[in-house]
Description:
Elements: H1 3-13, E1 19-30, E2 40-57, E3 61-66, E4 71-76, H2 89-101, E5 108-115, H3 125-141, H4 147-160, H5 169-176, E6 181-186, E7 192-196, E8 202-208, H6 220-235, H7 249-254, H8 259-283, H9 287-303, H10 310-319, E9 325-331, E10 338-344, H11 348-363, E11 368-370, E12 379-381
Parallel strand pairs: 3-5
Antiparallel strand pairs: 1-2, 1-12, 2-5, 2-6, 3-4, 6-7, 8-10, 8-11, 9-10
Amino acid sequence: MSLNVLKKEFDSRFEGQPRFFKSPGRINLIGDHTDYNDGFVMPAAINRYAQLAVSFNTVKRLNVRSIDLNEILEIDLNQLQAKAKSSWENYFIGVLSIFGERGIKLKGVDCVFTSDIPVGAGLSSSAAITCCFAFALNEMFEAGFTKNELVDIAQQTEHRFAQVMCGNMDQTASVFGKVGQVFKFDCRSRETSFHSLNLNDFSLLLVDTKVKHALAETAYNTRREECEAAVKLIQQSYSEVSSLRDAEYHMINEVGLKDNLKLRTEFVIEENDRVTKAELCLDHSDLDGLGELMWESHKGLSQKYKVSCPELDFIVQQTKGLSYIKGARMMGGGFGGCCILLIQSSTITGFKELITTPFIKAFEAQPEFYQFELVDGTQEYS
């Protein structure tokens, strides 16, 4: 949506001169469900955006208009309480409320927003909204929060107001993204290592199953609880282990982890190792190696972490044996959403035709395909 359309919608609803902000969605090349285990991930910001037009008002209310949903939030500043778990309104209520908790003297805010990030596709539409609103308020209130503090505010909004116990990868990718680059991110130390994505005649392609995952209503939070339970058991013998980031293979049998806790721990150890290996593949332009790591990642997500679904597994299975696809894996929280493919650029049109018919036959639904560019993170624009 163009800035002019956003401004026109704002002017039709509110007074004042708005400022404009945008925050991108993200892909994750490899490293899923490792972020809340203090591990490693490899995301990048993409050119799908949440966009806001924002100004102050004099009525001590938060007023937010969703263009896409044709809905509006109107709430007094002294009533910034979470609504039903699945409500988009919680992202705005939560961010503003946390600003107040952190010592900012609140004013009324008028906002209009739109987003072309597909909801439920695993591209972090909610992180883009929360990061964009946090960034906008930081500029308008002149609050002086660092980018890392804005990431924290956005993450806390997810935890406390949306009831999703996510890690900090999505928010970090949305805020810190750089044009043309992916980055290895240490979710504990917050160290970032940027790498140009030189794929030669290959591209990254997203295949959206159109299965909508509502993370707060799925097994996502259960996976985090299982990881925390595994850590507590390991700590009985290894007190230095503060998260599964610190776990090692030999500990699994030594402390007697079984069933789901054993599988989850194995996956996190292996996935962290895959991210580190993927970084080396990028540095050496080893697309075969990178693709193999993607295959392995999906197998682990499906069989050990068990966050895949029939549609995701079907797409990945269909890509195997195709010489023009180096690797494929599900991406994001799981239970639906997208697969990410490393595919020869000249074959994309033919692949879309190849996959669509059998997918429709199997699931009576049509997949959607997204190509994208890697872009800078959250910013004000005009």
